[in-house]
User: What shape does this take?
Amino acid sequence: MGVDRQDKQRILTSSNALEEIIRVVASAKVARPFLVCSGSAERIPGWARFRKENEKMTIFSDFFPNPKYESVEKGVALFRTSQSDGIISIGGGSAIDVAKTIKLFSAMEGNENFLMRPHRHSDLFHVAVPTTAGTGSESTRFSVIYHDGKKYSVEDICMRPDVVILDASLLGTLPDQQKRSTAFDALCQCIESLWAKGAGDESRGYAKQGLKLALSCFEGYLDGDEGMAEGMLMAANLSGRAIDLSKTTAAHAMSYGVSSRFGIAHGHAVALLLPFVWKKILKHPQAQKDQRLSSALDTITECFEVSEREAGVERFVKLFQGSGLPVPCASLEDISELVPHVNLQRLGNTPVDLSAGDLTEIYRCAFGIQ
Assistant: This one.
């Protein structure tokens, strides 16, 4: 595939992430860390000691889910004035994406629109601590930010954090809706990574391992079984490692507009769409003729522990229906506005060609419009 291998990233497991951060930051000789986190980070046990151990730390939390470019700009400005020499991110995909983008943009000179300028490599140390089991953003070279209402996917190998700390105890206070949405994101990323055009042996290995692990933990994790949290967190990380190499496909490409238009979480939107993308792929002639695609579909079927490919879709649908995540009330007018704005880069990574008519049909089926 000609991509950078992921063995440069250290992935640590811990039962006390804050203590581990202190050790990792000290080992990296970071004297003035820049912490990107949401306000909820202050509720993590041991926060007061963590702050005391890092008296020169600057904290940035002026952002929201689906972060905007303006928030990243503010973070870059604060990073520069604070003279920080390393980054810590604690949170879900948005917090980690913001941190990764601040790292990349802060290496550029001046303040002109960073999105429109060539990237400059940054060696700035970054340790990421996910507090959701979902996006796997802690192990990818991508970030998603919005500018003037448009979604931008920023990509650079230097954006992938140097160290990841996985601490399942941090998942305990997640709201149910967020817990379910992020878990579906991990599940969908593994499935999409397996059939993606950009898949290779390494990405498929991560995706298969992640999908099997996610399915074995999924229902127990959503039902509050604390013993399943560690497995789900690792599955999410594997999904991130998989899409870092293969990238995502149509379900993700179609989800961004749904998420912003109806105000639902990213993983919720992807899970709503994925079964109908899946059905389109299964019905396509390439599903039988293309050996790579056929093998990927068989792997997914194996992971779902069913004998027929269509039964895998049905099991996924039952998981979604059992999750309690609602189907937004949409109209044909909504769909006509969604189709032209589908992310073409991710759509092009889908293993079969999907026309505007196909996209319309997928949206109609997902929203239950006849």
In short: The two ends are 42 Å apart (CA to CA). The chain is about 50% helix and 10% strand. Residues 1-5 have pLDDT under 50 and may be disordered. Strands lie at 10-13, 33-37, 58-60, 86-91, 125-130, 142-147, 150-155, 163-166.
